Amino acid sequence: MQLARRSVLAGLLLAPATAATALEAQMTARRFDFTAKPREGFTPVAADRLYDAASGYGFEPGEGRSFSVAVPEGDWRVTLEVEGGADLTVKAESRRLMAEQIRTKAKERREVTFVVNTRDASLPPPPKNAPGGTGVILNPREKGTPNWDDRLTVEFCGPAPKVARMTVEAASVPRVFLLGDSTVTDQPFEPAAGWGQMLPRFFAPTVSVASHAESGETMKSFLMEHRLDKVLSQTRAGDFALIQFGHNDQKENWPQTYVAADSTYRDYLRAYVGEFRRRKATPVLATSMHRRRFDGEGRIINTHGDYPAAVLAVGAELGVPVIDLAAMSKVFYEALGPAQSPKAFADGGKDITHHDNYGAYELARCIVEGIKAGVPELARHLAADVGSFDPARPTPPDSFVMAPSAARSNAALRGN
Fold first, then answer.
1. What is the distance between the alpha carbons of residues 352 and 354, in angstroms, rounded to a whole number?
2. What is the pTM of this model?
3. Where do the record's region annotations for Disordered lie (predicted)?
């Protein structure tokens, strides 16, 4: 059974005076009213009001119901006033799940609050004659997507997405950075999904989830494309970093980014850990989930070789928490079995690596269990309703319900 989030309105929190957060602090709370009788102090928004740069707000064109507000990069506390008779699921940016199945009775009103991280691709320019870049090198599929634009986008999904009002204000909270590949990333189109875009739903509005994972990435490419530079430029003391690489790092047919499990793969893991620790942030390693490949007895075949063991070894060596998603995914897939497990994967189960909404959601619950077991400082920020999850007893796939986003594509995923 899925869990519905309920949270309460929190006050305006101004961020520390860094280059990025100084811009946040300049922006006062913005309040929007979508009803026929706008409340005083709120900006009225007609149902056909499209986004334009001059006003900095409006609905995005196309199918679905996505509302955008121009903001600088940072963390934003969003509070929705949900109307009576609603059945609402909320996503942000590129389909990040923020709240699910918010259901209200006919005359009931409810406030739902969550924190969204926004970003652009710019980097602080290096000093004169110093090496470095001025921006993340985006791949073609990323350009123009909500994850990298100049606005905060909230999508109202579900059978009855009744939202009366919305408030956006700057927030100062710890960040949970996600670094990884296509199995972690915010997949922009239905029906594919990464566990990272499900994770925000499981946190209270006391942290933000900043997913910098991207399809096709390896630890080397993440460095070369200045993605790690971007993350580190925003990392503050008290932040967290969940790091999961391996699917692509192990590909010997990718010679520019291949790393060996017994040597260079471990070296890169150590370097990533060191960078976050130098900034007084908490690194957390995760082993890669298995691919869906069964033997004749219905047991998962390890296609990752020694890479999961290398992550566990580096974690033990450095005293870094490790979430063993390889072990949990094995239990999860075997619990479903060869017949039902394709329902957790993309492309109608033809894909044996990437997941759909159901698979990503259940893997995010595995990550939450790993946080509860090994990262108590972060576990304090989990939502009160996360409950417990046993990968040996997953939600039956046919009973899983996730309100879909409007954006849909059947194109092959990058790095597949």
1. 6
2. 0.92
3. 119-141
